[in-house]
Amino acid sequence: MGTNAIMEKTATDPAVRKMEASFLIDTTKCIGCRGCQISCKSWNQNGTDKTTAGPTLTNPPKLNSKTYTNIAFYESEHNGAITWNFSRNGCFHCKKPACASVCPVEALVKTPEGPVIYRADRCMGCRYCMLACPFNVPKYEWEKLSPSIQKCNFCYDRLLAGMIPACAKTCPTGTIQFSDSIEKNLTEAKKRIAENPGKYHNHIYGEKEAGGTSVLLLSAIPLDQIGHAKVGDQVLPDLTWKYISGIPAIIGVVLAAGIGSWVITRRMKNMDKEDEQ
Amino acid sequence: MSTERHEIKMFTPMTLGLLILIIAGAVSVYKRMTLGLGATTNLQDDFPWGFWIGFDVLGGVAMAAGGFVIASAVYLFNMKKYKPIARPAILTAFLGYLLAASGIFLDIGHPFRIWHPVVMWQIHSIMFIVAIHVVIYTTVLAMESSPMFFERIGLKGVQRFVEKIMMPIALFGTLLSTLHQSSLGAVYLIVPDKLHPLWYSSLLPFSFLVSAIMMGLSMVSFESILSSKFFKHKADMSILSGLARGSIVAIGFYFVLKIFILLSGPGLGAAFAGTMESRLYLLEMAVGVIVPLILLLLPSVRNSMGSIFLVNCFVIVGIVINRMNVSIFGLLRHAQERGVSYFPTGNEFMVTLFLVALGIFLFKFACKYFNVLSYGEVKN
Amino acid sequence: MTNHWIDLRNADVILVMGSNIAENHPIAMKWIMKAREKGAKLVVVDPRFTRTAAKADLYAPLRSGTDIAFLGGMIKYILDNNLYFREYVANYTNAAYLVNPDFRMPGQLNGIFSGYDEKTRKYDKKTWSFQMDDKGLPKKDMTLKDPNCVFQLLKKHYSRYTADKVSDITGTPKDKLLEVYKIYGSTGKPTRVGTECYAMGWTQHTVGTQNIKAMTIIQLLLGNIGLAGGGVNALRGESNVQGSTDQGLLFHILPGYLPVPSAALVDLKAYNEKYTPKTKDPKSVNWWGNRPKYFASYLKAIYGAAATKDNDFGYHWLPKLDEGQNGSWLMLFDQMSKGKFEGFFAWGQNPACSGANSNKTRNALGKLKWMVNVNLFDNETASFWRGPGVNPKDIQTEVFMLPCTSSVEKEGSISNSGRWAQWRYKAIEPIGQSKPDGEMIHELYKRVKKLYQTKGGKFPAPITNLTWNYKSKDKEFDTHLVAREINGYYLEDIFDAKDATKQLGKKSELCTNFVTLQADGRTSCGNWIYSGSYTHKEGKMINMMARRGKTDPTGLGMFPEWSWCWPLNRRIIYNRAAVDMTGQPWDPKRKVIKWNPDKLDPKTNKVAPGWDGDVPDGPAPPMADEKAGKYPFIMRADGMGAIFGPGLADGPFPEHYEALECPLQENLMSKTKINPAVKLFHDGKGGSPEDVFFSCDMRYPYVATTYRMTEHWQTGVLTRHLPWLLEAAPQLFVEMSEELAAEKGIKGGEYVKVKSGRGEVKAVAVVTKRFKPFKIAGSTIHQVGLPNHFGWQFPEDGSGGEAVNLLTPTIGDANTMIPETKAFMVNVEKI
Ligand SMILES: Nc1nc2c(c(=O)[nH]1)N[C@H]1C(S)=C(S)[C@@H](COP(=O)(O)OP(=O)(O)OC[C@H]3O[C@@H](n4cnc5c(=O)[nH]c(N)nc54)[C@H](O)[C@@H]3O)O[C@H]1N2
Ligand SMILES: Nc1nc2c(c(=O)[nH]1)N[C@H]1C(S)=C(S)[C@@H](COP(=O)(O)OP(=O)(O)OC[C@H]3O[C@@H](n4cnc5c(=O)[nH]c(N)nc54)[C@H](O)[C@@H]3O)O[C@H]1N2
Ligand code: SF4
Ligand code: SF4
Ligand code: SF4
Ligand code: SF4
Ligand code: SF4
Ligand SMILES: [Mo]
């Protein structure tokens, strides 16, 4: 089902309508099985790229227009002890998504239920969303003549049908925990950190990043060591909005200044003329 | 009046060169349109905007700023002195915008949906604001340029009518330009984590506007000198040194602004950190701001056409570097952290060359067949 | 598994050694993660740092093929530090038994046990026996002090396995070694339980069975068998491999683990004589004493009315093995390569890639007249005649392809490692002309039978007399009828032998369970352990395997109403060892079963003492009951857990031997380098050139192992066609340490050649911190590893690479003959 059709479809279940979809992704539980990656492709019927084995097991090496989520493998060694971290990439479904805020045609929108979804028929392909997303999530179908933006849609179609997202459903270890409330997941995340001293890096990625996201990540080590961008706490659309909301004032000033100077300079020139005469 | 127009030879080696570039570039445009972006550019997921946005759009629009600067000088500030260069300046702007719009047309994935923003509004989007501005301002520029067209086809009445209402048009144009030039800077407000701190600032819109004015002044001056050389008419030294004085103010202001941004942002140290970014930053500042400012402060420079020309070149190149820094080099570090880099393909260069060559050709064409350059002289 | 998947969550320590559960049994890994959340410790011992190791509390590397040394060291540690569960060991195992004084151990005999015959490479097990008293019961020393008692012999045997020696052999750093011992040894307390998860990392060795045996000893010492969260757990492989071994897939067993008769057992009596263990101990249940009932019922199931008492229920129609004949994989292909076979059904397998020494296997296929490939897809086996280096013109084998349906296109039961038989339904209609395997066999049988009937043959009776009642009203072949035949029927009304008024079974109804089976032909049962899986209740047939009840009365996750589990729906076998001698749980938190003297019979509402909890290993009262009490290990003739295990071919205690191909000049433990009881296909001097091996040879300096990854299934026939999986794991690769890569100038991502004495493959180098060189007896030994999922046929452009079995040797375990594909020698070269 095209996301557009989903968008138009209204779920009959009021509980669905009230939800605030959220993932709590606890990478300490992840076993790197890539079930999420495959089930996402399966549900969305996404295609593949030709890949090669190595240098690490991560494949496809990055998110792309056919890959909404992937597992990245990071190995490291400290004092002879090896750690191998599995890090899940994907859209964070920001509370105030930069991607949707910059989209000139509302092709990307934040739905009331939380998912940030894409409507291909509106998109003109400016790719501003790609630039704007602090997590580098939206991907483009570069190889196509009539390309679309591609990214995780939080399985909006499944949510409306009362099912949880495909990746969460598949995850055997509960790494990807779906909830209908960001708050609930946040509380759970805090609880896990508090109850397991030393197990987690004390930071809930997504709680504050980019002003807060619907997807929260927990990890044993800082997330920037496992491929996640360092993202500030600002609500990104606010940065732009500060400017945009100033536009009426700019208009006022420019008009006033323009008319004013026109009047004044006219006068001055006339006075010059009078003087000459 | 046609007799008073300068004799412009259409078939010169330069025109031939332009035509060759246009034809070769057209092939690249054709490739882009038939093979798609992936096959013809080095744009990629981690670097979605490249040379076309940096040079054609950001650079091009800045270069076109001469139009609104001169239009407001002449029609709002009543500086009649500059009227002779109003027509070429506005025409340049008009062509500049058309070409920037073409650049966007070629850059977006769905060129034929370029009209979408006109009907699908999203007022939170800078891109929407920019798009609407481009559309309206190009229309305004068309109106501002229309007198010479009406003049050419003999509709004197219409020409005079349009000239009568030129003040509100110019005012509107100025307004749009102000917004538009600054909005292009505002495009990058959303990427605080990606754009290098040497360039990222909440004052980006303002600095884009001020630098556009600088650029506009230099562009107009640059064109006047060039066209005087090529089309063999006399450049008015008083206009040029007037523009140069204006530039001093603009550049001076810009200099202060940039220093303020630097100090309130990453600090002086960042500019001398020895990184690629700091070098490019220093280059941009030296070429576009410091050298021109020093030179222009010398009266001898202000009074020499050759020196002014040189300063113009500095400013233009400097501001183009600035636009490239913001749109490409300032973002490379982030891309490189993600394991990618970007350098345009030959095809990307060719498309840009095509647009530039087409612009120059159209300008020359207009000069030959319309009363672009001698308008002021005739009036006087 | 003695336990079951969900039960992993009840463990305090989980030792994953010899398997890689996170990658190969990812769904099961969730129970380990649950256990960890409750504070359990996960310990992983593997030559390489796996995805399971990534979740471990403790990881220890070891060189492939050295597990017995590692575990022997653990046994020593447990004994030295008195960590064993004394009460359990003394009462529930044969630790107190006195062994034949002539028994000698490797420490005394240069690495071999007494009774070895070098010529036959076999042991005469005469001295591996217990001393018997005049009642015919084994002599015991409950103080465990007699130098001839099992306990003392164990101590003596493993006294040679010092931590330093073990570390020298395994390459495991000593501190890691001791850490593992310490954590695992902590489960010797009644309230702490440890479980072990093994699979191919242990079995695919010349000492495979002994690897498991070593762990069994540890689990018995620590009292971890029978308890929730304990056990020695084989994580079974192919989706229904548990079911297929239960149903007699292997050459040497009939359904229900009844031995295949040999030609020497001339009649039913001789068979029963040989395979029915006896005990004189009234406290031993000796369940296998019932073998004649199961065997007779089996014969009745397959030969029906034709099976009568007079003709030994058709015993003579059963195929017999020659005395000592081995029909396992390696032998089959060895014979095939010698042209001893005309035809071959490659039914649901891909031996051209999965069989050790694939070049030999592939060549062998070319010696056939015909081959039938029953599969979902064409594969490297079916297309062997057009494989790399093969000229189709040279191949005379005629190949037939029969397309079968996939697992979701047919109905039937599937048994998981926890012995749960779960009924599955057909989800979609079969594609094209594909047929379920059962239907094909059905069709095949009908035609073969007709040929025998019309044309006769040397011995038609075994075929013509088979019962074959699988046709139902609406289906030509109905799996339900197969399932019922397996469960068994009462062929007559059956009454209790002691109480003739008590009717046990009604004629032509399905058997309630195996307890009511008879040895006289009045019952039929296709597989006694599955008896009870499809029964009659109040006149209605119930498919117990299709049950989906979710109650969990013990809270231990046994879910007794979910599907059905053999035997008798007992979720943890040997559960009588989970309680003390009075029937009270060793650990009050883990009430697997519990003797309840005040139990009320729900029907009569009278007190009838009995067990609460899981289905107990027999209803008898606990062992302490003087009159009726029974020993816990009911499947063993003596009722005791076997620390001393004379049943195996290569010794009653595990002893460390090197793999056939190893990097060492000699075994650091003894003068005997490799398992003395393995069958050699090539003795190092002479034999078929295909079977060569190279030990401690400069040309092949690196230890290699093979394994699986989550993303693919086996030889990849099911997964290489799936673009999503192929994208995630596109090609054969070889993992190696940064040190080896640096030594060889290899960069990650480059193609390299991996060569053994038998073949070579091209692979992408994955240079990783997860492999580390081993320090073995002072020198550095490198190990590399390759996944076993690729083959030349798909992807079509050949980018997947070839089967790693081109590299592996022809050698198998001394007991099971499973090929040694986990430890062999290779070289790695840049290309
Ligand atoms: N995704 C997936 N799952 C599968 C399968 C599959 O093909 N794909 N196959 C199924 C089948 S049929 C089976 S039998 C099981 C097998 O399941 P496993 O036994 O878990 O499979 P392997 O990966 O072959 O081997 C397990 C581990 O043994 C290690 N190993 C190698 N040599 C040694 C050694 O000498 N000692 C020790 N301690 N470890 C060693 C390897 O490094 C590897 O990590 O998996 C089943 N599950
Ligand atoms: N080097 C090395 N070699 C190994 C191993 C190792 O670890 N290392 N592991 C060994 C182990 S444990 C195993 S189990 C073997 C596996 O060896 P094989 O069983 O030969 O390998 P598979 O690839 O599982 O082959 C199963 C075939 O059955 C087909 N199939 C699937 N479903 C059905 C069905 O319903 N009906 C029919 N008729 N066919 C079906 C599949 O397409 C596939 O071709 O490999 C062994 N070989
Ligand atoms: S992560 Fe990026 S794509 Fe996803 S909602 Fe946020 S800004 Fe948009
Ligand atoms: S590329 Fe499409 S979705 Fe993204 S901002 Fe532009 S129009 Fe919106
Ligand atoms: S939520 Fe749906 S679309 Fe998003 S990653 Fe999960 S499966 Fe894919
Ligand atoms: S499915 Fe769950 S455990 Fe598997 S890789 Fe994805 S997040 Fe990790
Ligand atoms: S393949 Fe099947 S049996 Fe194996 S883990 Fe996945 S779901 Fe379980
Ligand atoms: Mo297996």
Structure notes:
The complex is a heterotrimer of chains A (277), B (380) and C (831). Residues 1-8 of chain A have low confidence and may be disordered. In chain A, the strands form 4 sheets. Chain A has a 3-stranded mixed beta sheet. Chain A has a two-stranded antiparallel ribbon with strand order 2-3. Chain A has a two-stranded antiparallel ribbon with strand order 4-5. Chain A is elongated. In chain A, 34% of the residues lie in helices and 15% in strands. Chain A has 10 helices and 9 strands. Chain A is α+β, with helices and mostly antiparallel strands and 277 residues long. By secondary structure, chain B is mostly helical. Chain B has 2 domains: 6-40; 41-336, Formate dehydrogenase/DMSO reductase domain (Formate dehydrogenase/DMSO reductase fold, Up-down Bundle), CATH 1.20.1630.10. Helices cover 75% and strands 0% of the residues of chain B. Chain B has helices at 13-35, 37-40, 51-63, 66-76, 83-107, 116-119, 126-152, 156-164, 166-186, 204-230, 237-264, 268-271, 276-297, 299-302, 305-337, 346-369, 375-379. The longest helix of chain B has 33 residues, at 305-337. Chain B is globular, with a radius of gyration of 21 Å. Chain B starts with 12 loop residues before the first helix and ends with a helix. Mean pLDDT of chain B is 88; it is low at 376-380. By secondary structure, chain C is α/β, with parallel strands linked by helices. Helix content of chain C is 21%, strand content 15%. Chain C contains 20 helices and 31 strands. Chain C is globular. The model of chain C has no long low-confidence stretch (mean pLDDT 96). Chains in contact: A-B, A-C. At the A-C interface, helix 3, strand 2 and strand 3 of A face helix 2, helix 19 and strand 27 of C. The structure holds ligand MGD (2 copies), iron/sulfur cluster (SF4) (5 copies) and molybdenum atom. One iron/sulfur cluster (SF4) is lined by residues 40, 43-44, 68-69, 90, 152-155, 165-167 of chain A.
